[in-house]
């Protein structure tokens, strides 16, 4: 059975996963993964402060990740992660029920970027931010005009690189529907069914930061099924004994790979957090150049 087009996403091919513009420009794969994570976390934090739904934030993170994928994609060395993050969120929110003005988006990003090492103040879903002087993130009218021009130009660049294909189907609602289909979300809900649903959503959110780019390599139905399988095992809730995942067009091999990938996300994020414990991960072109020079000992 083929995936319904309305529930499928364009996926990255082998060439796009093997090489990226950033790597061709001399960026190491480890540093590229760190900057990608930092940019995705920045998008998550900005979306929360703008009070956008998680679905919109997730779509923006996927667009951000797609932009930097493949040899024909953007490069962190020429397209700053902070600019692409802002453009992705602004663009996706524009077509949602809660569009944001350029000033709102840019004010939030100015505030977040004033926080220094933002990644160490982010919890799983809510940013914990330090109190800073308003002078550190105030956007004057002149700076705002420059930032707005950059926002518009970056949005146009993202659209060109993605060939104007900004379709993103996220698996969150699908996963809840699948849980109801499997009969494990009774009415009224039990403590275990609530815990199961919460763990499923948590895994799907963590997968947005996956170093394996799970949202770019697997369809949303597969991600939803894997999150359900893993979450049920964690909370001790029994699912049907038959190979129920096949009903949702997921085979055992793909399910096993995704369960391992989802299960490793939290540990990898923690390792990245420790890796950048004493310095901020670069989100601008200038900061990235400095880190690369330090890594090369020049």
Structural features, described:
Helix 4 crosses helix 5 (81-94), helix 9 crosses helix 11 and helix 11 packs across helix 12 (252-275). With 298 residues, the protein is mainly alpha-helical. The N and C termini lie far apart (55 Å). The protein is 58% helix and 0% strand.
Summarize the structure.
This protein is an all-alpha fold. It has 13 helices and no strands.
DSSP E strands, number:
0
Number of helices, where a helix is a run of at least 4 consecutive DSSP H or I residues: 13
**Amino- and carboxy-terminal Cα gap:** 55 Å
- Helix content percent band: 55-70%
Strand/helix succession? HHHHHHHHHHHHH
Radius of gyration: 20 Å
Counting helices, strands and paired strands, the structural category is mainly alpha
Beta-strand content estimate: under 5%
Which consecutive residue ranges, at least 5 long each, have pLDDT under 50? Answer: none
Q: What characteristic shape results from the CA principal axes? A: globular
User: What does the average pLDDT come to?
Assistant: 90
Biggest sheet statistics:
none
Q: What secondary-structure arrangement, pairings included, does this model have?
A:
Layout: H1 14-18, H2 21-24, H3 29-49, H4 54-67, H5 81-94, H6 102-113, H7 141-161, H8 172-181, H9 191-206, H10 214-217, H11 220-235, H12 252-275, H13 285-295
Helix pairs in contact: 3-4, 3-5, 3-6, 4-5, 5-6, 5-7, 8-9, 8-11, 9-11, 11-12
List its salient traits.
mainly alpha; 13 helices; 298 residues
